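Class, carefully examine what follows:
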Amino acid sequence: MMYQGTGIYTLPEAARLIRVPAQKMHRWLYGYTHARKARGETSRGHSEPLWTPQLSKEDFDSEVIGFRDLLEVRFVAAFVDHGVPLVVIRRCLETARELLDVHDYPMSTGAFKTDGKTIFAEAVERSRSERTLLDLKSRQFVFKDIISPSLWAGIQYDGNQAVKWFPDGPRSPIVLDPARQFGSPIIDASGVPTSVLYASYRAEGADTQAVSRTARVYDVPVKVVDAAVRFEENLKRAAH
């Protein structure tokens, strides 16, 4: 199939999975128009996308992104949450592509984990010419909080390219694998979607006995059903 191995997520689905508002993702991935003032006059400006998403809008009924988009947005969000201006993030992506010789999705590569501090520092220096209010020394300190081991926890790589993500950590049975079920959350050992286990749990009464019955029906351990239920309920809370 054309998109096999890519992963397919609507923006609302992606928003729940990585806890990033869909509207914010839309601005980062598709650009946006904004007002700007110069010499007392107001005009309209356009901010370009941070990168071109894996999937073309023309091929789908709604805007969708791929697995690599999903992980890269997650990294961008970590920078934004720590107060890094978007212009610096844009510079960081450009610098990473140059220094790592990675054309797409540099932040989610294994190489960025090693060289990210140097890349970030150089991006800040480049951004100074654009009058970005950013203190290099303090931001290098903040960078230690942004790029922490937890940001990579659960990501599996083939070389430097991310190929799987265990969103609840490497010991969790739940995985997002773009080569399986179009990247939707599944149980790694069996391939059963977490949404299917959760639907069965709800249909069986959503209690302790329902967990056991669902486990028997799908021939998976009870603890796996428990994990799927917690995961799906967290997704529901993230949607509100």
User: Anything to note?
Assistant: The chain is about 50% helix and 15% strand. Residues 1-81 form one domain. The beta strands are 9-10, 32-38, 41-47, 64-65, 155-158, 161-165, 174-175, 186-187.
